[in-house]
Amino acid sequence: MEIIIWIGLSLIIAKALLKAVRPDINRYVNNKTKDYWNSLKDYF
Length: 44
Hints:
Layout: H1 2-21, H2 23-43
């Protein structure tokens, strides 16, 4: 259970660092995540 917390925390920190360092890549990741989420919603 603890490993899930550390993975989540590291993903949040990595996302914040990506937003600060390379906002263009951050925007691309956001768009791809939205596309993936929408395709999952359409699947179910």
